[in-house]
């Protein structure tokens, strides 16, 4: 599922869109003891407007973020297609638009047993249908395709637990058990099944959402969905750094590192309109190192270093760049944002290695107090 396909689904993900409908909605709470509480299944049109709006926004947020970062596609391994496998379970839920069958009853216990969450959380399952449209043969008008993209979104939402209260019922003080749980509209994790590929459903894969792309819930991928976890943005940058350190070593300096980051950023910008995300492999890294002035002997070690650190899988370029540059030495941390990396220079002054920061404006803020240099 690429950027364009995700954008098409999100474009029509509105309750007032004529090509989009919501069917069954299932909700439940799973407490810290992994017990399922308050499970309900309703048709979306029967849910009160305020509650329905909240649930709809939760499902929509589960499609937010970037492909390759917050949203990662996973293919099911062969064993998950067998009887009792997760793919079979999800396919059964997909066929049950009302979510009233046995498959949804099987998903919740599996979730409770498999998903590791810090505290009580809510589970939302929302079944949706997008009627796919396509261009007619004259390439000028739109025809309704005979294909409906049926899918469902599962969202996991942390729940704020209030302290248990004592209330007075007119005769005696009793312990309050019917606690009201506070539900936000920001899911921490979730997934969409099936994916939307080549403008059609693909039941062989699932799209997993992580609010914190650097810290995805691995148990969702490996234990609940039974898929093999792939590198996240943080680990991809760590792999990239390891490749550079192993192959280039002492030839890396501040200037070369900034040049390489800028080349990756330019590569991403050049491909921003492409449907597939740009990737970085050993040959591309070698070309960037050559442009940065790294010696041919150091570049010769790159293929082996890349294979050892990354295997045969290229790295997503978007995971290799950051919105800021962090420079650290003993007792000092410098954080540079935006396009200001070029304002910091390394120089050798009177035999000492120094960092120089060019200031366009002599005004600086020290410990919250504005002053001048």
Describe the structure.
With 373 residues, this protein is an alpha+beta fold. It folds into two domains: 3-224, no CATH class; 233-322. It has helices at residues 3-11, 49-61, 86-95, 102-114, 218-224, 233-247, 254-270, 282-291, 296-300, 302-310, and strands at residues 20-30, 36-43, 71-75, 121-135, 142-160, 166-168, 173-175, 182-183, 189-193, 195-197, 200-202, 205-210, 279-280, 315-316, 324-329, 332-337, 344-349, 352-357, 363-366, 369-372. Strands 1, 2, 3, 4, 5, 8, 9 and 12 form an eight-stranded antiparallel β-sheet that branches. Strands 6-7 form a two-stranded antiparallel sheet. Strands 10-11 form a two-stranded antiparallel sheet.
Q: What's the structural blueprint in terms of helices and strands?
A:
Layout: H1 3-11, E1 20-30, E2 36-43, H2 49-61, E3 71-75, H3 86-95, H4 102-114, E4 121-135, E5 142-160, E6 166-168, E7 173-175, E8 182-183, E9 189-193, E10 195-197, E11 200-202, E12 205-210, H5 218-224, H6 233-247, H7 254-270, E13 279-280, H8 282-291, H9 296-300, H10 302-310, E14 315-316, E15 324-329, E16 332-337, E17 344-349, E18 352-357, E19 363-366, E20 369-372
Antiparallel strand pairs: 1-2, 1-4, 3-12, 4-5, 5-8, 5-9, 6-7, 9-12, 10-11, 13-14, 15-16, 17-18, 19-20
Helix pairs in contact: 3-4, 4-5, 6-10, 8-10
Supply the key terms:
alpha+beta, two-stranded antiparallel ribbon, 10 helices, 20 strands
Helix content: 25-40%
Q: Would you identify the regions where 5 or more consecutive residues have pLDDT less than 50? A: 173-180
Gyration radius, in Å: 26 Å
Domain module tally = 2
Number of helices: 10
Strand composition percent: 25-35%
């Amino acid at each position: 599922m690429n950027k364009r396909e995700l954008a098409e689904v999100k474009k029509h993900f509105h309750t007032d869109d004529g090509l989009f409908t919501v069917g069954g909605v299932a909700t439940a709470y799973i407490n810290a003891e992994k017990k399922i509480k308050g499970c309900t299944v309703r048709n979306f049109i029967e849910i009160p407007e305020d509650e329905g709006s909240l649930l709809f926004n939760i499902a929509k947020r589960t499609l937010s973020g970037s492909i390759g970062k917050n949203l990662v596609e996973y293919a099911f391994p062969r064993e998950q297609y067998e009887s009792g496998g997760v793919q079979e379970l999800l396919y059964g839920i997909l066929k049950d638009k009302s979510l009233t069958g046995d498959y949804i009853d099987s998903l919740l216990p599996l979730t409770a047993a498999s998903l590791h969450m810090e505290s009580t959380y809510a589970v939302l399952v929302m079944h949706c249908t997008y009627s796919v449209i396509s261009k007619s043969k004259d390439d000028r008008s739109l025809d309704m395709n005979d294909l409906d993209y049926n899918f469902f979104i599962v969202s996991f939402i942390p729940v704020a637990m209030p302290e248990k209260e004592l209330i007075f019922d007119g005769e005696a003080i009793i312990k309050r058990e019917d606690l009201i749980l506070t539900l936000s509209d920001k899911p921490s994790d979730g997934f969409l099944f099936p994916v939307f590929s080549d403008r059609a459903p693909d039941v062989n894969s699932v799209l997993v959402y992580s609010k914190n792309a650097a810290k995805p819930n691995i148990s969702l991928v490996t234990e609940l969905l039974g898929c093999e976890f792939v590198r996240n943005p943080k680990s991809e940058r760590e792999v990239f750094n390891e490749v550079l350190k192993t192959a280039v070593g002492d030839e890396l300096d501040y200037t070369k590192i900034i040049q390489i980051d800028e080349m990756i950023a330019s590569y991403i910008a050049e491909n921003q309109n492409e449907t597939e995300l740009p990737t970085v492999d050993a040959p591309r890294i070698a070309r960037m190192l050559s442009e940065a002035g790294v010696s041919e002997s150091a570049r010769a070690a790159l293929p082996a270093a890349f294979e050892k650190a990354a295997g045969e899988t290229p790295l997503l370029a978007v995971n290799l760049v950051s919105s800021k540059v962090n420079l650290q030495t003993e007792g000092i941390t410098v954080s540079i944002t935006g396009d200001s990396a070029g304002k910091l220079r390394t120089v050798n002054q009177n035999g000492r290695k120094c960092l120089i920061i060019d200031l366009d404006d002599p005004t600086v803020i020290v410990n919250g107090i504005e002053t001048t240099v």
